[in-house]
Amino acid sequence: MTEPSREAPLTAAHNIEPFFVLHKAAAGASLTTSRARRRVDKIPQPSSPSPKSPKRPRDEDGDDEGDMELYEQLRLEAFHRTWSKIQSTINEVLRGINLKLFDQVLRWVQESFSTVRSVIRPCPAEIQQPYPLLTDVICRKIPTAFVLTKNAEFVDDVTTFRDLSDHLESNGCHLAKLSSTELSAKYGVAGCLKSLLRQLLSDVPDVADVSALASWYCRAKNYDQPIIIVIDDLEQCSGDVLGELVMTLTEWVIKIPIFFVMGIATTLDAPRKLLSSEALQQLDPCQLTMGSPSDRMNALVEAILVKPCAGFCISHEVAVFLKNYFFRHDGTITSFISALKLACSKHFSVEPLSFLCMGTLEEDCENFWRDKFDAMPEAMQKQAFGLPSCTRENNSIKPGNNLVEGLSALMKLQRDWSSVLSCLYEAGRHGKVQLLDIFCEAINPDLRTKKDSNIELLMSKVTSGNLPSGNSGAGRRFLAQALDTVRYMPMETLFRVLKVWSIHSEGMNEINDKVKELQSTTTSADCMRITKDKWTRSTNSTANGAVPLNEKATMLLDDITRKFLVPVECLPFHEIICFKNVGVLQSALIGNPRRMVQLDLLKSQSRLKCSCCSRNGIAVSASLHDTSIMCNLAQEYGDVINLQDWYLSFDGIINNTNSKGKRKLIGSPSKKKSKAAPQESEAMIQARFCRAVTELQITGLLRMPSKRRPDLVQRVAFGP
Amino acid sequence: MAPRGGHAAAAASSGSEDEEVEEAGFSRSYFLAKEKEPSSAKKRARAAAAGKLADLNLVDEQVLRESLAEIPPKHEKEIDALTRSYKDQYRNWLFELRCGFGLLMYGFGSKKLLLEDFASTTLTDFTVVVVNGYLPSINLKQVIAAIAEIFWEQTKLKQKKQSGKKSQLSQNFASQSIDDIISFLNNQTPEDGHDGVCLLIHNIDGPALRDAESQQCLAQVSCCPRICIVASVDHVNAPLLWDKKMVHTQFKWSWYHVPTFAPYNVECVFYPLILASGGHAQTTKTALVVLQSLTPNAQSVFRVLAEYQLANEKEEGMPVSSLYTKCRERFLVSSQVTLNSHLTEFKDHDLVKIKKHSDGQDCLRIPLVPDALQKLLQELA
């Protein structure tokens, strides 16, 4: 791309065309990929009956490239499978949480429909007649469900309303969605009707008219269901257009049962502020409320991070970043999920062995790993054992010589970790611990290494009733809080918690037994207690300590925490499944052009890694990129820059150093060149100045002079 | 792209721990800059008067443009190395594209060559449609119709292969609405062998694409099943173009900081040169273009006004009543209404400014210096 000769013919024609086709996807062009695909296919699938795969015979030349493509293809496949698993889990979780609301809406729809139909059941001829039916005035109201979303940001509700629409549609309702762009003054009510017809009718007439809808509704297959119009963000709509739509439809509500479902992000006042009283009177409101965002967040974290549903997991640093990103930056689940997806794609893109992740999705994962490992080129096999987690000295768990065993052990330990964390959260949530918080602590590898020394100290603090807030315990705040909650938990709650523990610990026999044992003692003790003195129990347990059931549960929890809560980063081979590079994620997620472009210009020498510009110790060297010189000079000014002044400084820097260079470099070979070149001509300097100003203008760091003040330009950005 | 949005952008675009520190630094430099700013109007005037562009020995625009083409490149070696380092990332970029993300390149320097090189060397499985967003006008509908056309051709080809005969169906996308075309694009299903279309947009923050409607349209296109998007931005406030829905569910940007330090040769073309546009030449030229498009009578009215202004340089302007009398004498206008319609035309094109005279009546003045006015009259004749 640096050869101008090749670019020249292309640029001339294509630079001024608004758009052009650079090249078509040629069938021949994808030869390499298809070859790679074939080779991927050659690798025996784990489910295939031939478990032993001999090492592939490989050609000598072009082999590395082929391998690279092959494994890239595998990693891509792994990403798609992993992410689709995560995505479907997310969808399931969100739908599960919203199901209650969806059912409420459905019930309301059915009730409203039967109310409307109980008034009158018009025949097709009646529906299509141009004048209204004579009925009670009250029944001309349109049933409307206002769904309070409790989200400040609308973006999270997009999926909720999509799911709601699916839910209603699958239950037989006719469904149409109107977005705020359609309900805008620009489209008008005609645009809305057109959009409605597009969504419901197969062939849309040129003139959007409700009568077209009426004749469609008269058909036998459409007749017995209501039409639901979903408007997901009411606040963004134009009140006039919506009002007009309401007034239009209200004429028809008996003939065509159309109901509204409207999402409200703020308060119930919104419709009143938005609609005219006349339109408002035509609505028959019903109020429904969605679950809170933090509930949804907890459920999501549990489903995709605590119980890694697809094998992929994230490191402590990444988790903390995501947590901050969620709480401080954005607060929407959508952005959290997209950040996670980006992390996932980065992992599969960068980590060569990440395709092994796919194994966890297979029924027989060991077989899968074995096949893949055998087929690997030697360099890659070596790479696996050269992973930092396998080579570090102070590993508590030593990696074996076998990758398959290593990975299986990793999965087993991950499962244990997840069970223990679930138990901890089950206890902690009674003390208002958020899952994301405790999750971040549980995957912190530093705590694991420090823990053994700190734990005694910590425990003593907890027992004395203080929440550890000192420096040693600060990192384990939420874990300690969870333990603490168990310690002071009322017996009934403890019983429920133990019940959940026994479910979580199902895969771990040793713990499960202990939980069961505790459960049995609790049951008997509990019965006795409740009959005896329900109200003095809490003082009793701390005072005499004769029945330290809470204490026992706490000990158990603490014990399993120590034993099994091993963060993934402490385990060998974790790099294969765990994404760690928080820097890469951050830069891809949050592009910061405002800062970075200014830094590009102010520190161009470090970006270009050149040796010429920062020599001599001059603040602004003439060898810098022209725009960079100008940007540096601009820092000297206030928010307006005098062009003449700026030009003179620029001129000064370029010519000054030129003459200085002349004096200094006598005798050096490069000297001849600079001697031959005369001082930059005025025209050239002006041209360079012009170009630099234009470039600053393109980057938006500068605004052009106004007509009133033609000699001043305005600085827009101040400091990176 | 209002500058005041910049604060929000700076605050919003860093989610890291050192956000507060950064924030403080930002506000400090802002206030430092404010301090340097001349506060009172008087000081401001002094700053403005400190130096004028006219004081410089400005070369002719023609010469300036010639020199512009000959600016010697700096740091060629380093820029080469930088570009090579990006080449190594091409495969990762492709990977991410296939994962369903859109690539958004930013950083100082033209990214046109870089992206087109990436497209022609790495995106060989895609049909690549390039949009030059830096141009002042782009018809997005044509772009989308072109993409739809590509898919339509593929479908036809496939049908031909299957049935052995040429399909008689035809689609005229140009006559369909944008919504219709987008719903056609949305109905495409991923097929084997075809990776679909990659939309490569240079300067998605360019002047013609900066409005909300274009961005909405691009966002809708970018989440169609067989379309992926690679774009570049140059403006520092570019993130303000998109809301969360667009960023997270439609474009799905993955940002890449790729400063190239390459000159904005093509992108620059549509910006006026700062040392050329300020002079008289430009204003005279534009005034001439406007005047030549008017009727001969209107031109003559302007001439009357100009001649009066040249003859009476010290005066604030020509009273409307005297202009009317003069024009009537020369049979240029028959009534005040006709004169007013000419004047409205002049005002709309900034050929004439109206001022209240000290004695209360409206005065007309052409906002050009005598020399420029003289030249204009010569050229008009």
From TrEMBL, chain A:
Residues 32-65 are annotated as: Disordered. Its main location: nucleus. Residues 55-356 form the Origin recognition complex subunit 3 N-terminal domain. It comes from the Eukaryota. Residues 594-718 form the Origin recognition complex subunit 3 winged helix C-terminal domain. One of its GO terms (biological process) is DNA replication initiation. It is found in: Nucleus. GO terms for cellular component: DNA replication preinitiation complex; nuclear origin of replication recognition complex; nuclear pre-replicative complex. InterPro entries: ORC3 (IPR020795), ORC3_N (IPR045667), ORC_WH_C (IPR040855). One of its GO terms (molecular function) is DNA replication origin binding. The keyword Nucleus applies. Keywords: DNA replication, DNA-binding, Nucleus. Belongs to the ORC3 family. PANTHER family: ORIGIN RECOGNITION COMPLEX SUBUNIT 3. This is Origin of replication complex subunit 3. The lineage of its organism: Eukaryota, Viridiplantae, Streptophyta, Embryophyta, Tracheophyta.
From TrEMBL, chain B:
Its main location: nucleus. Residues 1-15 have a biased composition (Low complexity). GO terms for molecular function: DNA replication origin binding. Residues 312-371 form the Origin recognition complex subunit 2 winged-helix domain. It holds the Pfam family WHD_ORC2. Residues 1-22 are annotated as: Disordered. It is found in: Nucleus. InterPro entries: ORC2, RecA-like_ORC2, WHD_ORC2. GO terms for cellular component: nuclear origin of replication recognition complex. GO terms for biological process: DNA replication. Residues 78-258 form the Origin recognition complex subunit 2 RecA-like domain. Keywords: DNA replication, Nucleus. Belongs to the ORC2 family. Component of the origin recognition complex (ORC). Component of the origin recognition complex (ORC) that binds origins of replication. DNA-binding is ATP-dependent. ORC is required to assemble the pre-replication complex necessary to initiate DNA replication. This is Origin recognition complex subunit 2. The lineage of its organism: Eukaryota, Viridiplantae, Streptophyta, Embryophyta, Tracheophyta.
